[in-house]
Amino acid sequence: MSELSRLRVGQGYDVHRLVEGRKLILGGVHIPSELGLLGHSDADALLHAITDAILGACSMGDIGTHFSDTDPQFEDADSGVLLQQVIEKATLKGFKLMNLDSTLICQSPKLAPHMAVMHQRVAQLCGLPVDSVNIKAKTNEKLGYLGRKEAIEAQAVVLMLRDK
Ligand SMILES: Nc1ccn([C@@H]2O[C@H](COP(=O)(O)O)[C@@H](O)[C@H]2O)c(=O)n1
Ligand SMILES: C[C@@]1(CO)OP(=O)(O)OP(=O)(O)OC[C@H]1O
């Protein structure tokens, strides 16, 4: 089989509500903020979107089918650990992550000062060189629930190569 026919694309999406009394964790990095993301786990929307994109490329379902949001085992779970478990499962099925691109839709806080650290952390979690990872940030131009700072959304696309 040619290398081109072994390529698989996957896309992922996640949104979590912004609330008081929670830490804001994005891309495995704690970002100082008055509001944090609500979820069963640490609610890292970026890592959840990347995890779902990987699962999508490998036809392996979605994050909730692997880590139930009613299982106490995953309460406050580190999403980096969940992502690495999914990469391990994908590797066992013969899939190798090639690159990823992602977008955070985040009205506030400003993410630019944290981008280099997030970028490095995501690359490390994914076992990729930093030039195979990209994270973009957008406000929502103050429109809708994202623009009102009620939530942060993440989108991700990955390319994976199957061994056969
Ligand atoms: N939370 C955010 C959102 C955006 N940025 C950076 O600002 C640029 C302009 O954003 P617009 O939504 O006005 O297009 C964007 O390209 C990011 O570089 C940010 O740092 N943090
Ligand atoms: C990660 C899990 C599991 O702790 O919980 P949440 O943090 O609520 O995240 P979500 O994006 O709703 O989906 C998957 C869940 O099963």
Return the domain count.
1
Structural class comes to alpha+beta
Bound molecules: ligand L45E5XJ5, 2C-methyl-D-erythritol 2,4-cyclodiphosphate
Query: What's the CATH topology name?
Result: 60s Ribosomal Protein L30, Chain: A
Strand order, main sheet: write it out.
4-1-7-5-6
- What helical percentage do the residues reach? 25-40%
CATH class: Alpha Beta
Distance between the termini: 7 Å
Main sheet record = 5 strands, mixed
How many distinct helices?
5
Identify the overall geometry: globular
Would you report the number of β strands?
Answer: 7
CATH superfamily: 2-C-methyl-D-erythritol 2,4-cyclodiphosphate synthase
Family: Belongs to the IspF family.
Site (Transition state stabilizer): 40, 139
Binding site for 4-CDP-2-C-methyl-D-erythritol 2-phosphate: 14-16, 40-41, 62-64, 67-71, 148
Catalytic activity: 4-CDP-2-C-methyl-D-erythritol 2-phosphate = 2-C-methyl-D-erythritol 2,4-cyclic diphosphate + CMP
Concise account of the structure shown:
It comes from Limnobacter thiooxidans. The chain is α+β, with helices and mostly antiparallel strands and 164 residues long.
